[in-house]
Specification:
This protein has 2 domains: 133 residues, Aspartate Aminotransferase, domain 1 (Alpha-Beta Complex); 255 residues, 3-Layer(aba) Sandwich (Aspartate Aminotransferase, domain 2), CATH 3.40.640.10. 39% of the residues lie in helices and 17% in strands. The chain is built from 14 helices and 17 strands. The strands form 5 sheets. Strands 4-10-9-8-7-5-6 form a 7-stranded mixed β-sheet, sandwiched between helices. The protein has a 4-stranded antiparallel β-sheet with strand order 13-14-17-16, covered by helices on one side. A two-stranded antiparallel sheet has the order 1-2. β11 and β12 form a beta hairpin. α12 crosses α14. The longest helix has 21 residues. It starts with 5 loop residues before the first helix and ends with a helix. The site of 4'-deoxy-4'-aminopyridoxal-5'-phosphate has 13 residues, from α4. Belongs to the class-V pyridoxal-phosphate-dependent aminotransferase family. Csd subfamily.
């Protein structure tokens, strides 16, 4: 039914040709990290082969070239997210770093007794930094609950939101359930009481092209490694007025204007938040990954992945004892499941023996597992380079694992 040329796309990903335990690899752990196309690898090799140098400091040509490419990468991200200004794009080591940077900054803004709201379906990296912030400031953390389809209960959010709410933070897409949250509605509502909003876009960014100006969001954080880029690099988008207001996160080189032992003044944006030598090659490769994905097209990617999702969900549901967690009306290509009486770890181990990579466990989202009263799930997450044939192999392997374990 699809016109998506997946076979051509697969040619770009050398790793998809390898075998695991004697079987051709089926990689269904894309929500943990995505694979890298050779176009991005070429950029990495080119960087180290031709213009590896430290940035912003050198007068020599290599340093200038590296600086130009790095700043060009920032512009690529700016355009991708439709940020108004390039200095609203802060390079980080990933989503976790971006969230910690903002949480740290709010320590000097939040006051005792003020409230911050989190959703019930967050990754630990969007929970723990805020708990640490509450310990430092005496602010209170409140939770927006979800229903058993894995959807946030909007009316409860309206209920707990108040003029005392200073900040709301939630993921655009849940890594454990695939739920796409109605973030525009939540951002608008939060702004009606002047609360700032941080969106964890780690799981949305590989499938949905967010427009930060249209969303009106205050902070949006992403990781390159979930979207065909390398690990150890990501981006924090922050609205200029907020980035001006927040204090620096780390002190060091690059983030200063002047330093003396009496007083140091800080550099302007974005350097204020980019202490030390950054992941220069990573930032440049991230931009190459965005170019790669944009050339295919995010709506084409999402459309094809939805077909994979529907196909896999339908086939999985035919298996007796199958329970799927997260059946939101809008979701990305993630299926979290258990089979009655079987441990997710055992299923995952047998799938690996058959060359199929899935994730098992709590997916860094223990509160979700507690909500469903389970220790964990098996999670299959699909990308645009996966195929219907791979799903057939996966379904057969799940059936076989079930037979072996029962
Ligand atoms: N939030 C969500 C929703 C995620 O899925 C992840 C990665 N599993 C993170 C945050 C953390 O991202 P990183 O490990 O790249 O910092």
């Amino acid at each position: 039914a699809t016109t998506f040329d997946v076979e051509r796309i697969r040619e770009d990903f050398p790793i998809l040709k390898r075998s695991v335990n004697g079987y051709p690899l089926v990689y269904f752990d894309n929500a943990a990290t995505s694979q890298t196309p050779k176009q991005v690898m070429d950029v990495i090799v080119d960087y180290y082969s031709n213009y590896n140098a430290n940035i912003h400091r050198g007068v020599h040509s290599l340093s200038q070239e590296a600086t130009d490419k790095y700043e060009q990468a920032r512009k690529t991200v700016q355009q991708h997210l439709n940020a108004e200004k390039a200095h609203e794009i802060i390079f980080t080591s990933g989503t976790t770093h971006g969230i910690n940077l903002v949480a740290n900054g709010f320590a000097s803004i939040l006051k005792e007794g003020e409230e911050i709201l989190v959703s019930a379906m967050e990754h630990h990296s969007n929970i723990v930094p805020w708990q640490m912030l509450c310990e430092k400031t005496g602010a209170k953390l409140k939770v927006i609950p979800m229903n058993d389809r894995g959807e946030l209960i909007y009316s409860e959010f309206e209920e707990i939101l108040s003029p005392n709410t200073k900040l709301v933070f939630l993921n655009h897409v849940s890594n454990a359930l695939g739920t796409v949250n109605p973030i525009k509605k939540i951002i608008d509502k939060a702004h009606s009481v002047n609360a700032a909003v941080l969106i964890d876009g780690a799981q949305a960014a590989p499938h949905i092209k967010a427009d930060v100006q249209e969303l009106g969001v205050d902070f949006y954080v992403i990781s390159a490694h979930k979207m065909c880029g390398p690990t150890g690099v990501g981006v924090l988008y922050g609205r200029e007025e907020w980035l001006e207001k927040l204090p620096p996160y780390q002190g060091g080189g690059e983030m200063i204007a002047t330093v003396s032992f009496e007083k140091t003044t800080y550099a302007g944006l974005p350097h204020k938040f980019e202490a030390g030598t950054p992941n220069i090659c990573g930032g440049i490769a991230f931009a190459a990954a965005l170019d790669y994905m944009n050339a295919i097209g995010f709506s084409e990617i999402a459309g094809y992945e939805q077909e994979l999702l529907e196909y896999a969900a339908k086939k999985l549901k035919e298996i007796e004892g199958m329970k799927i967690y997260g059946e939101a009306s809008e979701k990305t290509a993630v299926i979290s499941f258990n089979i009655e009486g079987l441990h997710p770890y055992d299923i995952g181990t047998l799938l690996d023996k058959m060359g199929i990579a899935v994730r098992t466990g709590h997916h860094c989202a223990q509160p979700i597992m507690d909500f469903f009263k389970i220790p964990g799930t098996v999670r299959a997450s699909f990308s645009f380079y996966n195929t219907f044939g791979e799903i057939d192999r996966f379904i057969e392997a799940v059936k076989k694992a079930k037979m072996m374990l029962q």
